[in-house]
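User: Show me a protein chain along with its predicted structure.
Assistant: Here is one chain, sequence first, then structure tokens.
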Amino acid sequence: MARIKPQALLLQSKKKKGPSGVSVTTIIVCILIVAVMVFSLYSTYRYWFRRSIVQTHDDLSTSKAIERKKSDIPKYALISTSKGLITVELYKDGSPDIFDEFIDFSQKGHFKEMQFTRVIKNSVIHGSKVERPEATEEWTLMGNHYSQLDPSLKHEAFMLGTSKVKHEGGGFDLFITTAPILDLNDKINVFGRVIKGEEVVQEIEEVDTDDHYRPKTRVQINEVTLKQRT
């Protein structure tokens, strides 16, 4: 029996223990896996990047819409009467719900041809489409006492407001004070101030009235126009 030489055995052992070669298929599979991972990461990045841009654009659009909406809010009301024009600066912050109601009624033409149904000298002129005698009863005792008010308190004349009742059935009425009124905010919801046309208010105040403070001649509001600026 032939004997294998030690040197030949050593060579055979090295051949068996040597690393096996990496096939081309394995390399291609690895490359594909890496490519898929890179593509997935890139796609995820693009998705979130685009989403952030869209979100930023939406936020800017919403912000601009809010700014436009604020700029569209009327700041003045031009009250055209049979005696002349009265310009009122409107206050939204003090009575936002009443302010919104006034805007809504104005846009619907509610105040067109509304009569001044009560005129109480040194107190108020009252316009209404609904007969409410009780709405002006408490004002009748104030006319002779306005001069006794504490001058340090602000109970200004020429303020615009409406009665503190639920405005149903066309009952949104208007009060314009013609003298300082004590505890004015307890009596009406104030939402504006006359800044031009005080002489028109005073002319309406001077009309002749009957024993129930109703004008003997018709005095009315022709229309109310809303403006962003005067």
